[in-house]
User: Fold these one by one.
Assistant:
Number 1:
Amino acid sequence: MVMLHGWPETWYCWRHQIPAVAAARTVYAPDLLGWGESDKPEGDYSVPAMVGRLKGLLDALGIGRTALVGHDWGGILSYPFALRYPEMVDRLFIINAAFHRRPPLAPLHRYYFHLPLLPELHARLSGDSLIRGIIRWWAANQAAFPPEVIAVYQEAFRRPGAHAATLRYYRASSVSGMWRRRRYRGPQIAAPLLAVWGERDPVLPVRAAEQLKEDLPATRVVRVPGAGHFPHEEQPEQVTRLLLAFLDGRLPPDAGGEEGAPGGPAAH
């Protein structure tokens, strides 16, 4: 299984899930290019380029087929990877990551990060408080992020070039694409797809999950109560149970199903 984190986290965000999954599968949880201990070069950070790098990583590791788990930017990269290389994706587990459309005014930071110089100046002046503020804002369960956990992510962004590298992801994406309103009409993802969504996510509210379901109708969506943008950290036991059940081929009921999803969260 390959697990891809989002902003502003690193591989460490999967610390709750890795031990349970590693009992039965080999788990790879890399820092994405620009994050944590990975290199932070200048260059192309567009989604197609990053999908190509992910393909190169799997080839280098000798992985021909894998379960793919992605949160936030990790999910944004996982969707096109599954479309481009369907033979390599066994199943796709998404956590709070928009696909084709997203509520246009919710992820305001995406617009802000496109501004020249100001985000860099903000990061320089704010220091550690920027990462702490983002996590506190986006998380519904504050107890999931004690100071020692936030410190791990703060340390990652103190590394030379870290802020500049992660900004390149946003600046390589299209602002106009964030206002996309039409339904997706392209190819469907072949692998089973389960999307887990924190019900109290302020940056990608549940409406984004509903749009995902409209664009990829075969998707199963499970809402996680008591979680914001980081369900895998805020409600780790629920997310781990869902992930293990999904890996075993036990899908939660689709919209309109009467049963509860594995571990208790209500299926949507």
Note: The first strand starts at residue 2 and ends at 4.
Number 2:
Amino acid sequence: MNFHWHSQARDGMARAGTLHTAHGAVPTPVFMPVGTAGTVKGMTADGVRSTGASIVLGNTYHLMLRPGAERIARLGGLHRFMDWHGPILTDSGGFQVMSLSALRKMDADGVTFQSHIDGSKHRLTPERSIEIQHLLGSTITMSFDECTPYPATHEQAAHSMRISMRWAGRGRAAFQQRPGYALFGIVQGGVYPDLRAESVAALTDIGFEGYAVGGLAVGEGQQAMFDTLDVTTPLLPKDKPRYLMGVGTPDDIIGAVARGIDMFDCVIPTRSGRMGRAYTSTGTLNLRNARHADDPAPLDADCDCPACQNHSRAYIHHLFKAGEMLGPILLTWHNICYYQRVMARLRAAIIAGNFDQEAAAIRAGWSQA
């Protein structure tokens, strides 16, 4: 089967469809739990599957450092290694390289950097990033790019974007085309509409199986992110999937779906779970707060995850106060379930033609916590 996205319904700019891949079908819009180092922290693969997740994310930078892409390939690839048989998207490492600015040196050919683990030197080029993702067996490979930091001047953003576009062409040439697998290009250009348009034109000229919008959720604020999407998504091919990288909160996701985005990933639900924060249909809860110590209610009456079905807010509060690892596990599980439930509601609303009403209903519920 060739990799493709099939459109099923539209409501305004919002789109519902199905992504067909070598490792199964993915209904969109979709949220991908982040499994940076080959695991969604605190979760078994069966647990992640039970939330309704159909695709997860891994990371080139982290997996190349430990345990190594070649080792994973010898052991049968990332799918077998982490017991995930559905699609896996791997981030190319560009964001991590940007965040390690004190440990890296970039040139026109690629990036040389020191490992944050042991200080060892490594080299990432567009070709090497593609090779690593091939060794991992990634269903969806991401182009190697420089994630433009915020703030950046127009000149800085243009220089960064044009490097990424050259790297995108080199990565496309290095990618080994196989049925059901894909390479996505990444749109850059900061918050500047003309640069975003230039980037889209360069990427569509190269040609990719899907297109990501990168360089957002890096400090620019929600309105600037939405403004950038307003000028970017209408330029993207209508028959290809659109992925907004590293976003975000439920409110961010609803706003981006309304602007034509199909795919999301973010560490927020898992990281928040480890910190004691729960996302619920009535708003966010901090389970470390003393007000939950005697509360027999579930986290969310609308949720069927183990945390909500089997335990009270008081019990989960106790777990965090006692430093028990079960607390972060239960909240991570719950948060991923909540995100998947929001995505399912948005998808159903697009198909039914009442997306705006459903989005408003979800947001209205958050004021009740």
Note: The chain is about 40% helix and 20% strand.
